[in-house]
User: Fold these one by one.
Assistant:
Number 1:
Amino acid sequence: MSALSPARSLEQLVRLVRELLRLPAETEWLEDKVSNGDAAEIGSYISTLANGAALAGRHRGYLLWGVEDGTRVPVGTEFDPLRQKVGNENLENWLLRHLKPQIHFTFHRVSVSEKPLVVLEIDRALQQPVTFKGEAFIRVGSYKKKLGAHPDVERRLWKSFVLGAFEDGIAADLLSPSDVLQLLDYPSYFRVMKAPLPESRSGILDALNREGMARLDDSDTWAVTNLGAILFAHDLDEFSALRRKSVRVIQYRGSSRVETVKEQEGVHGYAGGFAGLVGYINELIPSSEVIGQALRRTAGLYPELAVRELVANALLHQDFLVAGSGPTVEVFDDRMEITNPGRPLVDPLRFIDSPPMSRNERMGRIMRRGPCICTPACATSVPRRLRTPPYVTDSVSRRETVPKHRG
């Protein structure tokens, strides 16, 4: 189950509902009910609205109870999802069990115009249509229909999955301009881009909007995208869906994982915190004194360029749709292992001579524009400098094992 829907305050919920009620009619991602609490009906609407949100390019769909169908006037509801059971099973667990994939949805209770309402917030479908009891649904006109009965709509839905990207997802929404600037380390963005910092708040927000890191939505509130949060968050822990994507660095004693010497988890976004991350890793790597023809110098067991590029590759090429894990750097006495979620897009045996491929193109473009982060020319030199380190791949992650560098 994903965790993309934000944790909302009561004030944010009221604002959300008021904005939804301003729409003149229901849409493919918005449905009104008064008190219909039939579990199977709710399940089919979760499929309908998740698929409809994907088709419409929205990040979430909504089902409102306590709103009169047609007039869209709040009338209140007696429906209580927390008390609803299907047999001896609570409603949320029952619904989740019959959904595939198990997308995230949340019930909220809120009072608007002194009328009790219930909001079901549903994450959009990602990668494939959401089905309920094996059947996918979609809204056609004003009616809920089986997706398979409308092949043209089904083709458009599948096309939306191909065109969609993690970077476009919403990490936090219903924000004020001050909230955006508090969540994002915007000075680091302008520093990495070697661009002058605008003098006004509106100039900063315009730049973040153009880059796709923040977005002004239809309700005149702001949202921070996954792209902005993962690259320039002040604190990734502020974004519930991205907490597990921070980088963990672990140093072990010896060549096994029996004894941990140090463990550190990153806080900042990847681009804003990249220099500090690489510097910290290089401090953990054992070094030795090398005597040249005239001078002595201290050299790490691995070239700094290789460490920088391997870490950058792990960040850029991970699969963010693999839940529950993030990039990890493990430093042993005899090697370093760098792991990221997602199988490689290219056969590891063909990394050097295959055309470049990336899951996260916009992330890569921004990080490559920062000369202190990574460059395509440097990336191709890493395997040669390390005499092609071995790669171990399993079903959900890629691990790069870097042996000691021998000069």
Note: The chain has twelve helices and 21 strands.
Number 2:
Amino acid sequence: MKESFSADAVKKSLAGIPEIKKIYYKKILDSTNLLAKELALEGAPSGTLVIADEQSKGRGRKKRSWFSPPRSGLWFSLILQPEEVHDYSLLTTAAGVAAAKAIKKACDMEVKLRWPNDLILNGKKCGGILVESRLSGTKPKFFIAGMGINVNIEKKNFPSQLKSAATSLLIESRKRISRTSLLEEIIKELFASLKKQSNEVIKEAKEFSEIMGKKVKITSGREIIEGVAENLSSSGSIIIKTESGDMKEILTCDRIKIVKELRGNAPSPGGQRYSIKSSHHRGEGIQ
């Protein structure tokens, strides 16, 4: 049966969520984050949702392109005012937790979080999060929480360069998923996560984490760090225990790779703050 995914279907599905104030549904956009930014700058209220059936220039972190074909994914961005966000530094983390919980509820699938912003299913990427912000002086004026999830993409439709690393809910479950139902669950979980205390968000993020207790290799520019992923800090940074025993807090990275899983590693509370400066958890700045 063909899914009804349209402006009317989306609005009907989200009608019971009071935090959603306005919905912009487009058949095709270059990027939902870009339109959301334009609307926010024009004064669109918190709770404005931009969703597209297809993106022609979808993007992820570090301005990497994001494959966003029609009739097969969830590509959306949500405008949030600072008062809606309990802890700015954990916005990306909270969004990841919300997506993982929603997919579990709607699809009964175990999605893991690969720090800092990837959604992983059976070792492959099925989604990602891009949080951006606009500052007024030194304070955030608004946030845009963007999310892309590969829902009903068939394996044959992925570009050749993505087939070994990407997957979709359809591929892993062998059944088509209702995008409207999944979107509703994600939005509900996201607003619930935004209201939680920081320690609760961190606790849930560690439970969904793909890398906790595993040896990882982290690359950022020319810097490479290897060690065991021991913990998440109160701001969502990852704490790595190196082979020398040092604790390093990593703010962001270009790539993270699991080397192997270790057993019996108890999380440690903290340590040295690594010097790479970024804002993956606070949101990438909008110029």
Note: The mean pLDDT is 89.
